[in-house]
Each structure stands twice: as structure tokens, then as C-alpha cells.
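Write out the bound-state structure for zinc ion.
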Amino acid sequence: MRKIDIFDTTLRDGEQSAGINLNTAEKLEIARQLEKFGASIIEAGFPASSPGDFEAVQQIANLVKSSTVTGLARAMKSDIDTSWNALKGAEEPHLHLFLATSPIHMQYKLQKSPEQVVEIAVEAVKYARKFFPLVQWSAEDGSRSDPDFLVRIINQVIQAGATTINIPDTVGYSTPQEYGALFKYLKENVTGIERVKLSAHCHDDLGMAVSNSIAAIENGADQIEGTINGIGERAGNAALEEIAVALHIRKDFYHLETGINLNEIKRTSQLVSQLTGVVIQPNKAIVGKNAFAHESGIHQDGMLKNRQTYEIITPELIGEKTEPLALGKHSGRHAFKDRAISMGFALTEEKLNEAFIEFKKLADRKKEISEDDLFVLFTERQIEYKDVPIYKLESVQLQYTTDNTPTATVSVLVPNGHSVTVSAAGSGSVEAIFNTLELLVNDEVHIRDYRVTSISKGRDALGEAVVNLSINGQVSIGRDVAQDVLEASAKAYLNAINRQLIASRVGLQESVN
Ligand code: KIV
Ligand code: ZN
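---
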């Protein structure tokens, strides 16, 4: 069966989404999971863009073994040199070079003639091939480029040594018919196209990223690029889990393989959502909370008679656990540890103890603990942050009546190790908490967005709070969970502040070294 390679760019194009700012520990955790998910290629970042990106790409390149690791680079020697330093430890070093080819990008952004663009692309590919066995070249804004110019430049970059050619629909402008026709045209007109991999990279501005990717496959693409949950610049990228499941469920029609471990989809999607703070819309295909919920009586009746009446995908296919978790408040440490291992977590004894204490507290208050609850509990402890002193919530107390202004009193362990208690009022309970916490942080904080959702089902479900704030103009997203949404909100606020502290501390260490 024909194989389609899945190129995951969650850590590069996905991380370019407004407000997302993952640190190295979180990127490593996502990369580990993407390897289990079965991505053929993981784009770990853009090494020349910042010391943080360089560090993350280097560590991921050294860690990941069964997926190829790549990094993005502009068509310039300094980017290629930096990328080589980051990627040389990889099993199979791969570089992703890009250069714009559309008239509007060449004229206004690059201010270069088409001839100069061809020359720069060829030089960059030749230079990159001195180091990298695998070089992907992307024609940025390819879908709005002149197809004959594309043929001309691709002929030359293949001769220069490119091993993959990618044609992005950078601004999500194409329609499936147009994008498919462009792939067909390139297949028929580029010399040596059969010697390289042809790749599609679609953005979702018009909601057609997945359809465009499938149209490219139907017209000869060997590789599809996208992100988990479709996160990315503006409206995002093609959602890889949707493409993988579509090709699987309609194998009768497409006759294609992706090599994706479908039962890792749920876990991968949850992890990306948890660490990026980007909430998944409930009706999102494949991974939305309601993707397998049957509400209407007629549908439920049909499901009881024969599930296939209304169910084309089972939750089990994507690794969703439907049977109750055999863990509760009487479970012992041993069973808890076994569960962590079977869920793929490798926690130190200290972290496992911490998680177990938290689990016992939760089990006392919550009737049924779900695997989703455990997943959050374990993930939080699996990630090893650098040893940076941070803020820790000790307690939060609220005074609230419908007729009075709410007041919050919060005790926090501050980075110098002291416990500080402060109080402030606000027009609502959450505002009172945020105003109180702001007194502790000697910086200007603005709340950009704030959301609370439930992790699992039922009235005693854990609440997850996501706070998107800016500290002195720097955007940071924080998230945390607790059974009480006000406690979750306070913890999420501090998490955003801590993430900024960690990021600035890492940057400081890097500039000192
Ligand atoms: O959308 C795009 O054009 C890109 C390139 C850098 C490949 O992300
Ligand atoms: Zn892109």
C-alpha cells in the first residue's frame, strides 16, 4: 500500500500561534509523545530564531530515535550553520529550508527578482547538502506562485540536492481543486520529481486545510505537514489527527497507510492542549469532547440497536478509555505506580509520591477518578523544569456575598522562599484573586484571556483554568487544575508568571554562557 509520511510541525508552526510559548522541558515531553504517535518527521523548532529554540531542537534531536528530527532555516549560511550545530546529533539529520516564491512575497518581502530568488535557493540547498543528508526545500506561499516559475526553481533545487520539495499554502488561500491541480502539474512537469518526496503544507484560513492536504495526496503528494489539534499561525494548520483518521476510516477509498499509531491520538491531543493552554473546541472532529457523544433520542436509540447506525469511528480507535478506571481511594501505591507505567509515564520515586498524595486527596473528594484526571496529574510531574525559584500557592480564601465586593486573601511562597499573605478586592471573585496576586508580582500584568473548563464529566469534575496574560508586554499562558475553579484560577495565574520567570532565567543563563 502507498505510504504517506506525516510531518509534524506542532513544535514549530504550532508554537507560532499567538500566545503559545513552550519551554524546553515541555517541548521534549511533546516530542516524546509525537514519536509514540508515529510522526515520520518532527519539526522541533527554528534553531536560528532564539537560543531557546536552539536548545530545544538540539535536545530533541539527541533524544528522538524513531522519527526524523528537523529544524527550520532561512536560505542563508548562518541559519544553516546554526541548524547543523543543533541537529548534528540526530539519527538522520534533516534540514527544512524555505524561501518565498510568490510575486507578492518576492517583490515586497524579499525585494528580489525571480532570478535572484532562484540563485539564493540553489546556493542554500548546495550549502546545506554539505552537512545534511536530507534537505527539504519549501516554496513559501507556493500556492500563490506562478506554476511555471515553481517548475523552474524546483528543477534547479532538485539538481542542487534537495531531497524533499514542499509546496505550502502559506495563507490558506487555495481550494482543494486548485491545490490538487498544482501538485499534478508539478508531478508532470518537474524534471526528477520522482527522485524526491513531494510534500503539502496547508493553513486553515478558509477552513480547507485538511481537504487541501487530501487533494494533494490524491494528486501525488508523498508527505503531509500539519499539527496536532490543528494549532498554528492565525487559523492554524491542517490537523494531523483528522488526516490520519480520515485515511484510515476511508481506506476502502484511498488505499493509503500513514504509519500513525491511531491509539496514541487522544493522548497526544490532550498533552498538546494541556501544555499549550489551547483548549480544544468541543465539536472538533476526532478529539473534541463531543466527537463521540450521541445526544438526540433517535441517535441513542439507533446506537443501542446497532452502534454502526451513527458511529463511523469508535472512541477506542483513538485511544480513548471508555471503561471505568479500576483505581479509587482504597487503591495502594503499587497499583498507582503500575497505572503510571502502563500509561507511559516514567516518574521518579519522589514525583510518584507527590502524585500519589495528590491522587489520594482527589479520591477523597471525587466519586470517580478518570484516566483524564490521572493524565493531568502525571504530566504535571513528569516535566522537569530547570531549577528556577518560582511562586507556589499555599492557600486562597474568599469573602463573598451577593451584596458586597468580594475580597481575596492569598498566601504564596515567593521565589526568595518566604511565605507572603496579601489581600485585595475585585468586582468578582476571580478579579479579586488576580488583583491580590498582582500585588506579589512587581511587574505590570494584564489579563488577555481567561477560561475555565472541566477535565472529565460529572459535577465533581476537576476544573481547568487557563490564563493568558502579559507581564511587561511579554505574553504568557498559564494553566492548572483543581477541584475548585477559583483555586485552579489562582494556580493558573501563578503558572503563567512562573513560565515567564523560567523563560527569562533560561535566556539569562544562555546569554551569560
Ligand atoms: O506556511 C508556510 O509557508 C511555512 C513555511 C515556513 C514552510 O510554514
Ligand atoms: Zn506554515
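---
The chain is about 40% helix and 20% strand.
The first helix runs from residue 24 to 37.
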